Amino acid sequence: MFDGLKAIVGENGWRNRENAQRYFEDPRDRFHGLSQLVVLPKSTEQVAEIVTFCASNRIGIVPYSGGTGVVAGQLSIDREDNVLLSLERMDAVREVALDDGVIVVEAGCILADIQSAADEAGMVFPLSMASEGSCRIGGNLATNAGGIQVLRYGNARDLCLGIEAIMPDGSILRELAALRKNSTGYDMRHLLIGSEGTLGIITAATLQLKQKNPENLTVLCALSTPADAVSLLHQLRADVGDVLSAFELLSHVGLEILERIFPNEISPFSEPHDWYVLIEAAGAVGLRDKLEQALGDTIESSLVLDAVVAESESQRDALWRLREMMPEANRLSGAICNSDTSVPISKIEAFIDETVRALAAIDSALTINCYGHVGDGNIHCNVFPPPGLSKAEMLDKQADKIESIRMAINETTHSCNGSISAEHGIGRLKVTDLQHYGSAAKLTVMRQIKSALDPHNIMNPGALFPLEEVSN
Ligand SMILES: Cc1cc2nc3c(=O)[nH]c(=O)nc-3n(C[C@H](O)[C@H](O)[C@H](O)COP(=O)(O)OP(=O)(O)OC[C@H]3O[C@@H](n4cnc5c(N)ncnc54)[C@H](O)[C@@H]3O)c2cc1C
Which residue stretches of 65-143 are H helix? Predict the structure, then answer.
């Protein structure tokens, strides 16, 4: 059966398990993919041929971009007969159209390469996250990725004007026009964005470029509580307007973990504080003065306890490494649970307090590192085993406790009207959680859309929906 697929992509267009281990690995070392074949098409037409072949032969397809997804959406962990379709050979920038303010890219373009292409054209592509050196735009759109500049520029969905995709019957949807307005019925772009490869394969996208700003400012502020971080966000916005592009929460616990794992990355403050926010702002000439003045006021009122302003690019980079290396520090430090919670901004403090209380009731010796995107209400809550116990030992002997921890965070999220997946998606990891917390009406409509577009469930079977619910 797989010979037909190999013939479509040619000799250099496929890999098997033996020569392509990386396609079967999970960035957090929890899952292993079981697929036997990876196909690497070079063009939209080849992707269409592959999908048509798979539709006729009822072969499941798992789209794969950068493989940095953390919910196992890109890994066939439950079936060997799904084929992995990697977009990595489709990585061309098709066009930079400055008059339209867009860049048209193929789905396999690495996010950092799109940022560089925008920069060379004198513009900015603001989607940005710690995995940007490896993740690809197809995966970013399929998960509606967020990252650190959502506060000002929105998430992947907000930055995408057009899309090209292969639908489950093999037809090519060409909707790449750079239109800011288009009121002609259902918007297929928005259906495909965030669908995690379950409704089609994104092959290209038209993305919005933003203007560069002449002045920017990066500052790390020390604070007493997460509620103070929210107050600071509101106060600065009121004082200087919508110039804040990132507003990232860090904690003393998190910086201690970071310093232990990466001894060169150290807090710039001489004394520790309980909480910090890393702020990035960009705007017209005069922005630095205005913002420094506004920050001075917050120090005077004791809302901000201390602040360090980056005076050079290298100082800016050092401050940003404290935030960007946090996911890797958590992984290397043996986190047993990593939430991707979003709550209304007004509930951030309640979410953190209630989570800490609920986890202490399970085991008061757990270490908890809450950090994330305050401006988006998106808090990642990482939990570590009690001292003396490793992640492996806990997975082996206390799997039930890990599940209780995960569910306690889910329950707190739910009680705060939050979402169990702010920016990572559902993948295969959170399918049961979605069934549990998703509203009945939403789940019914999702199933109806899935069966209408992909009646044989060939598109990423096992992701978003339970495998048995829509089988091929
Ligand atoms: C260190 C680290 C930091 C991270 N930080 C962030 C962050 O700040 N914000 C954030 O949102 N995420 C973050 N992530 C998660 C991850 O990087 C993002 O979800 C990213 O958008 C996934 O892109 P990818 O190319 O790696 O996709 P993959 O992992 O390859 O795929 C992700 C999902 O999209 C589907 N898919 C992939 N390509 C296509 C396509 N062309 N068409 C249809 N479906 C497709 C896959 O089947 C899978 O379901 C982080 C991950 C790591 C490891």
Answer: 111-120, 137-142
